[in-house]
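User: Predict structure, ligand coenzyme A.
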Amino acid sequence: MLCKKKNNLIEGVPGFIKKSSFHLSGKNNKIIFGKNCNIVNCKIKLYGDSTLIFGDNCYFENTQIMLRESEARFGDNTESSKTTVTAAGKSLLDLGAGSVICGELDMRNQGIIRAKRLWTTWGPHIAANHGLIEFGDGGTADSIIYNSDFHPMYDLEGNLINENQDVIIGNNVWIGRKCFIFKGAKIGDGSIISSGTYTGKEIPPHSLVAGNPGRIVRRDVVWAVKDKPELKEFFPLAPDDEEDMRAFYNRAYEVTPTIKHRKGCVWLNRLRMFFVLFRAK
Ligand SMILES: CC(C)(COP(=O)(O)OP(=O)(O)OC[C@H]1O[C@@H](n2cnc3c(N)ncnc32)[C@H](O)[C@@H]1OP(=O)(O)O)[C@@H](O)C(=O)NCCC(=O)NCCS
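Assistant: Predicted complex:
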């Protein structure tokens, strides 16, 4: 459906909508729904020149999305609960298939948050300001992850001394509760960041990091979502054998989707989307 007057577009229809509101204002907004998306108790607002893309089988509950001149893409089978997404000033959120998210994702001034697959619990605050925060296939609990201090700091000659620096987090990284992952952090695959750690440094793969400032307290560690007897067959593991590591993490890092999708009346949902499009301010 296209509203030519303002060039606003809605493509596809959610499979199920409950107690949710959609609001378009300004021009050149686009919402694309994949197949069988469920939208429950959500507030979605696009304020012009913005694009929102849901892949197939997305399930969004208690989520607020606010885009201003920005884009958010959620891959197939993304689950979101109690999430706030705010993106302004040509920013981008790009989450790969199978992401399971909650918490606050905040992008401004060409900020980018990107993940192969993101898995968050207990509501982290992840904010990118003019630069990148990139996750592999990995997750975090209720930590703070920033690529920027959000205020400039100068020496007395007027030189900026706290420039933004990208944050790069590898695959299968476990970031525990209440960590502060700061501008410049580069966390290698398979590493574990102990709860309460503060770091903006480069951390080699399979390290256990703890403390403030974060220090490597152990090397050559791996971790699993759950202790399963079948994991034993992967040991001993060589940390630089990538294939062995991948095989281990394919088993150790399995996350099973928990939510059952529901189906609503397609025609009613289509009518709702029609009103959203033609009521746009
Ligand atoms: C990462 C974690 C699992 C490691 O567990 P562990 O190996 O049993 O940890 P330990 O307490 O033995 O700590 C390992 C080492 O780090 C040190 N260490 C741990 N926390 C530290 C801190 N905050 N500052 C400095 N050193 C610290 C310990 O002293 C120990 O050093 P030692 O071997 O010289 O004695 C644990 O620290 C942790 O963070 N648990 C909570 C994770 C979480 O948030 N879970 C929620 C779900 S995501």
